[in-house]
Design brief:
heterodimer; A: mainly alpha; 10 helices; 0% strand; B: alpha+beta; eleven-stranded antiparallel beta sheet; 11 strands; 24% helix
């Protein structure tokens, strides 16, 4: 909360785009990168997406009318970019190839690692990441990013009832896969 | 159980920050630099380092690989691109260098490669070598690659010269002065897994950072990766397959790779490539039931980066192939 208040003051007093983009990068780069990762599940690609987001932001700072917060605006750019990439056929091919590489590179875990790998937090994180995109994004945006349903409505361009339904179904699917220990749902 | 799940989700931030997001990195200086430089419009080609590294893997005249090199050049802008002057990483890491090297490709508009490619095989006491070497210049508006390839096979040296664009290849072989034209093999269309894909490149190393060693040498960073046999064989074949003709793919199918040693050298200031060396060792089963030990070596030295150039296809080549 304090950070948001400080940032608002900064926004008011920061007129030069260079200063503003620096502030935005300092404040939101890691947030956007994490969000991108939850979509594409690849840190290298998440980094690329994050750069794209802030480049887009920087180039359009003059057009930003302030109807939403900078955070929402950045999230919108990020979500749209991630969705474009997920729709890309090449990415889908890569995704299959990446699975193959991960499978072939799988090493026998140590006893300690096995213990860690079944720790609840890890299991929950991986189960969430394995959800289909449309369920994963609502879980992440609502529970991790603490967005309100109204913000999610704007961000995802969905009506409120759709968001509520998706959240409900996401939790049901998550519960089912979490209990079964299945982290490979798509 | 629903309540328990709801409780878990309420703690999701803590949960994911301790697991999946535990090691999120943020190179602030570089990130600011990249974003603020964004006004200069470049066509993003993605990291293309390794595609150039593999460009010499061809025993016979195989010039489709030049497509790969062309991808690294922002051909629409003939003006030399100002190179990214990034300050040296205070605590250089493999991952940091790979990230910067990936992005440095956006500043590439032309370069010169001198490459050397050999295959050595030994079957008992019998040994034979096949070697190729040559140069590749890439630049110009299309862009255009100009290749000169010397092959030394079975005591019969041949020289091939070619001009390659994304669509057309013009070539001639020593002994025949006539130029011929054909559609460039392979495709760089997105969605075609046979074409070079930048995400098969440096991110492959990024995923296996434990295999990569970093050393510093004068004004360069040197990344060494040693990959041993086992699960990696299929990866190597799949990786190479994106850059080979059908004949070569079939040849590689018969090759059991045991070991791959890759060395990448980058300029410490610009993160552009200086040289690359790949050495692969393996064996092949012969039709007579024996086994041949094979070593494949591929070395590229880069130079004249962004120092030229307007490579165009000569008029006589165009007129001869009309």
């Amino acid at each position: 909360m304090m950070r948001n208040e400080v940032f608002k003051i900064l926004e008011k007093n920061t007129k030069h785009p260079d200063q503003l983009i620096t502030s935005l990068i300092d404040t939101y780069w890691i947030t956007i990168k994490k969000l991108a990762f939850t979509y594409v599940k690849d840190w290298g690609l998440a980094e690329d997406i994050t750069q794209d987001v802030f480049i887009n932001c920087y180039q359009n700072l003059g057009n930003f009318r302030g109807e939403a917060s900078y955070k929402t605006w950045l999230f919108q750019i990020a979500v749209n970019r991630c969705r474009d990439i997920l729709r890309n056929k090449r990415f889908k091919t890569l995704f299959i190839f990446d699975d193959l590489k991960d499978l072939l590179f799988k090493k026998e875990p140590s006893a300690e690692h096995r213990f860690m790998s079944i720790a609840e937090d890890e299991h929950l994180s991986q189960t969430i990441l394995a959800l289909p995109t449309k369920y994963r994004e609502v879980i992440i945006l609502f529970y991790y990013e603490d967005l309100s349903l109204k913000d999610m409505q704007v961000l995802l361009n969905l009506n409120l009832s759709t968001i509520k339904t998706r959240l409900k179904r996401a939790k049901a699917l998550l519960k089912k896969q979490y209990e079964s220990g299945d982290g490979h749902g798509r | 159980m629903v309540m328990v799940m709801e409780d878990k989700l309420r703690d999701l931030k803590k949960c994911m920050n301790q697991t999946v997001f535990k090691k999120v990195d943020f190179d602030r200086e570089y990130s600011l630099h990249v974003v603020k430089q964004a006004e200069r419009k470049t066509t993003k080609r993605g990291p293309v380092l390794k595609q150039r590294l593999l460009s010499g893997f061809s025993v016979v005249v195989c010039i489709g690989f030049i497509l790969i090199a062309l991808l690294s050049v922002t051909g629409l802008n003939q003006s030399p691109h100002p190179q990214a002057q990034l300050t040296a990483l205070k605590s250089p890491t493999v991952s940091g260098i790979l990230n910067r090297a990936s992005k440095a490709e956006d500043h590439l508009s032309s370069f010169h490669e001198a490459f050397n490619f050999t295959i050595s095989a030994q079957d008992g006491k019998d040994k034979f070598n096949v070697a190729s070497d040559g140069t590749l210049d890439v630049g110009g508006q299309l862009p255009v690659g100009h290749l000169i390839l010397h092959s030394h096979e079975a005591g019969k040296p041949t020289t091939t010269e070619a001009y390659v664009t994304n669509s057309t290849t013009y070539s001639r072989i020593s002994g025949d002065p006539k130029w011929t034209k054909k559609a460039t093999q392979g495709t760089i269309q997105t969605g075609d897994t046979k074409s070079y894909d930048p995400y098969n490149d440096l991110p492959l190393l990024k995923k296996h950072l434990d295999l990569v060693q970093l050393t510093k040498k004068d004004n360069s960073y040197v990344l060494d990766a040693n990959i041993e046999k086992g699960n990696f064989s299929q990866i190597i074949k799949d990786y190479f397959a994106a850059n080979l003709t059908q004949n070569m793919i079939q040849t590689f199918d018969q090759l059991n790779l045991d070991h791959l040693h890759c060395t990448y050298v980058f300029d410490k200031n610009t993160y552009l490539p200086e040289s690359t060396k790949l050495v692969a060792k393996g064996s092949m089963d012969t039709q007579t039931g024996g086994t041949i030990q094979v070593t494949i070596s591929f070395i590229i030295n880069f130079s004249k980066i962004n120092q030229f150039q307007n490579i165009t296809i000569p008029e006589n080549v165009l007129s001869e192939t009309k």
